[in-house]
Structure formats: structure tokens, C-alpha cells
Amino acid sequence: MPNGPPTFDALLEAAPDAMLGTDAAGLVVFANERAKTLLLQSDLPITQIAHLVGCSSHSHFSVLFNRVTGVTPRQFRANA
Q1: Of 40, 47, 59, 62, which is most buried with the most CB atoms under 10 A?
Q2: What is the domain partition of the chain in residue ranges?
Q3: pLDDT-based confidence at 1, cuts 50/70/90?
Q4: Under the phi-then-psi rule, with left for phi > 0, alpha for psi from -120 to 50, and beta for the rest, what region is 2?
Q5: How far is 26 from 24, CA to CA, in rounded Å?
């Protein structure tokens, strides 16, 4: 059993869409909102943002972010 808090990607993988009202889904929303803030208010590389919100890789972060928001992190930043 891993130590520490669950990662963004682990939470999102574990939480089906029907769980929007649960604590796990709340953590996913929190991590996604943190990612949005970092994308909008910093020049940090997306790879670093992925790490800061607990994703195991840039590509996995992009897939998960797209699943929640409907756009990739790069598109989100460009459209801001």
C-alpha cells in the first residue's frame, strides 16, 4: 500500500463520472482547479504542473485534464 496522499491521476482513474458528489471526486476537482490556476497564472512548463498536482507523467496529465475540462492543458492555456 503506497504512502502519502493519492495522486490526481490515481483519484481520477478510481472515480467514475457518477461519483461527482463524493470526497474522492472533490479531490479530483481540487487538483484540476489547482492545475488550471497554475496554467493561467504561471509560466511553468506543463510537465512541472503535472508533477505539482500529482500526475505521474505529462502525457497522463494531459489525458486526465482533457477528460475533466474537454481541452488539453496546452489548449486551456492558449485560450485563456
Answers
A1: 62
A2: 22-78
A3: very low
A4: beta
A5: 5
